[in-house]
Amino acid sequence: MKKNKTTHFMSSILILIFVGIFLIIAGRFLYIQATAEINNVSLDEWAKEKRTASYTLDAERGKIFDKNGMTLAYDRPTFRIQAIVDESYTQDQEEPLHVKNPEETAEMLAPLLDTEQGYLLERLEKGIKKDQFQVEFGNVGKELSQQTKEKIENLNLSGITFQKEAVRFYPNGMFASNIIGFARKKDGKINGVTGIENEMDDLLSGEAGHISYQRDNFNKKLLDPNEVIKQPEDGEDVYLTIDQKVQTILEDVMTQVDKEYKPERITAVVMNPKTGEVLAMGNRPSYNPNNPNVKNWYNDVISTPFEPGSTMKIFTWASAIQEGVYNGDKWLESSSYQISDNIAPIHDWSNNWGSITFDEGFARSSNVAAAKLVWEEIGTEKYLDYLNAFDFDQKTGIDLPHEAAGNLVYNYPRDKMATGFGQASTVTPIQQMKAATAIANDGKMLKPYVISKIVNSTTGKTMEKKSPEVVGNPISEKTSEQVLDLMESVVSSEPGTGRPYKLEDYSVAGKTGTAQLYESEAGGYLTGHGNYIFSFLGMAPKDDPQLMMYVSVEKPELEGNTPGSTPVSFIFKNVMQNSLHYMNINPDKDQSKPVQSVKVPELEGMSKATVKKSLEAKGINITVIGSGDTITKASAAKGDELLPNDRIMLITDNPTMPSIIGWSTRDVLQFANLLQLDIEILGNGYVNSQSIKKGTTLKKNDYLGVELKPPKSKNNNSESNEEQTEEQTDDSSDQQ
Fold it and tell me: Which residues are catalytic?
């Protein structure tokens, strides 16, 4: 009986416990049903989130153009390969939608993805084992070209899909890379790292959109998907002041000098001194922004201050003239100058001049003359005022990132005098160019800039346009004229150090510089032939400068007695001579063989034979596209002016594919634009292969893939125009 009572009691307890648990669970279910929440999480929202697919719609990054509309940077579509390995995705076994045969798939994909079959097979089998829906193949499966995608699609492999994505592409490779900069993809978004890509990143990026819809387990839209779309806002287009032809000339000659003389650095910039527009800018070493695997991405023109050497004398003489204390006919004793026994003397680079005038001192690049002007004529404090008026104490404000300002070292008498001939204090090339606009532009100093305008990529409407900005007036028009006369004497007079910089048909005003290099480990300045920064700042035509250029070459390998001016003058003369002609600047010197530009006549609708005969007779390179007899389009419009050997493309009424082997990137892009082809360019250099065979009829939107390769190196046997016996006349700043 007692045992029976205990059993009933325990049963009652268990029943009460079970009833309690049931009530708790039932109550919980009722609560969830009533509130549709668990732990403050809405079940409706959770379910909606689970069955809703959301994707970011990337905005297309704005393009970067040169001043004439040539594309310098744009988003190129590429593809990422994906392999669906979930067998349940296939509804009909006769038409499988998943990877049915991993071994065969890996074997066929390996050569097209340029990787090992085993690597791909391992990825596929790992995804199947882990019950993944799909797998990717790492870096080998990313950024695939349209050509590669089509080759893979032609294999008809089940389960292989592609995701379209954009990468930033620079069709001209190393062209103006220090200005354009480059952008990289991070966390799915392309961000500017340096150059214009960084400076204008916010405007170029635009604003991403998004799309969301309800889906099933296989990510397919439901019949009623409740789709929400916010369209992306594409980035704005940026037009630069860079001129493609001037920049191309500069890039070519810098490459030649880099190959022949192997300097540590080359720096060059070309500017319109009347506006402040930078027409070309370059450095060596440089980089290809499509693959910028270099340590230094900075632009030496704006980011690397150094002791400039004697180009600084331009502003020392200008200060003395403006202050009213300059007498060019006044005599001085050259060779050496010392203001006290406690201060190291200043030396000229030659001891053979004897008594010279201050005018002659400028032409010969006398350090003694510069020191005397600062110490005895202008006065050191007044000279500092002029240095500040020329803005050597601050950045130029150019619209590029990472600009650095030089440093005016002005504490001791020796430093103050040395600043007058380009030692002690440091400046950047762009600071010198900004200051020199006052010399070329009647005393008005202009702010340099590289962005011409901002254009809405959707509407084509100009949102912002830059114009010349006068930022100072350090000297008068009369002073600028007198300084130009002195600078011309550097190039044209017998004792002038700038004779190697003469142009054939334009007068040049300029100043040479040979800056010493301070070696901290040696505790002093380097010595020895070639261990300098050789430079030249020049402008032409002298009486009304339309172009101004600065070039410096650091530590070139000079054979024998080759003067340091040789690599610098090669760059200056080639760029200035060709650019002045290209810009139709009238020569101001007699020419034995004037270069005549050719004005393009009416072409559209004209006979192919007639046009070809007429233009070839004037020295223009003709490329005829197609076998038709009538010209329908041309790469130059009526009224355009071409120089001899320029290329013009003529499209006939029956366009067919020509052989474009050996063409440059610019020619290919121009060709594709004329025929409205879908162009894809791989590599850099000149065309090595083309996807459309010669003679194939061309239609709008046809796909043209081209592979470029660098040209084979050739020895450069050209010689400069200088006589080989000419002695070096560059100036060398003395050691402290």
Answer: 310
